[in-house]
């Protein structure tokens, strides 16, 4: 995932070995976090989340119909996971400044 931080933040306790371990530390003792995986692709993140948390409740969204079908085949029967195909998703380039209007593609 491209996540690599070498310092330990002594205030939060994050060691930055993996993104998911740091999220677990930041959520502290939450054994059943509610997680939204938007753009879930084929569910690669779902497996990592299930390994990291005791009983996560995962809501996974995917806009591509063929990719959604692969996601559903891989994870549709697992408990604690809700899958949803996003209808006709489109990308909007929108800067985080007020004086710029969004541009639709």
Explain what the structure shows.
This protein has 105 residues and is α/β, with parallel strands linked by helices. The strands form 2 sheets. Strands 1-2-3 form a 3-stranded parallel β-sheet. A two-stranded antiparallel sheet has the order 4-5. 27% of the residues lie in helices and 19% in strands. It folds into 2 domains: 1-30, no CATH class; 31-90, Rossmann fold, CATH 3.40.50. Strand 2, helix 3 and strand 3 form a beta-alpha-beta unit. The protein contains 3 helices and 5 strands; from the N terminus they run H-E-H-E-H-E-E-E.
Compact description:
The chain is α/β, with parallel strands linked by helices and 105 residues long.
Largest sheet entry: 3 strands, parallel
Principal-axes shape call: flat
Strand order of the largest sheet: 1-2-3
- What is the name of the CATH topology of the largest domain? Rossmann fold
Architecture blueprint of SSEs:
Elements: H1 19-26, E1 34-38, H2 44-52, E2 57-62, H3 65-75, E3 81-85, E4 92-93, E5 103-104
Parallel strand pairs: 1-2, 2-3
Antiparallel strand pairs: 4-5
């Amino acid at each position: 995932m491209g996540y690599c931080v070498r310092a330990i933040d002594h205030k939060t306790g994050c060691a930055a070995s993996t993104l998911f371990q740091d999220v677990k530390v930041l959520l502290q003792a939450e054994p059943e976090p509610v997680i939204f995986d938007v753009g879930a692709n084929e569910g690669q993140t779902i497996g990592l989340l299930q390994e990291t948390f005791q009983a996560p409740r995962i809501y996974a969204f995917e806009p591509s119909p063929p990719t959604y079908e692969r996601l559903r085949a891989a994870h549709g029967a697992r408990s604690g996971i809700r899958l949803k195909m996003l209808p006709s998703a489109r990308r909007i380039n929108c800067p985080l400044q007020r004086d710029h209007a969004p541009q639709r593609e």
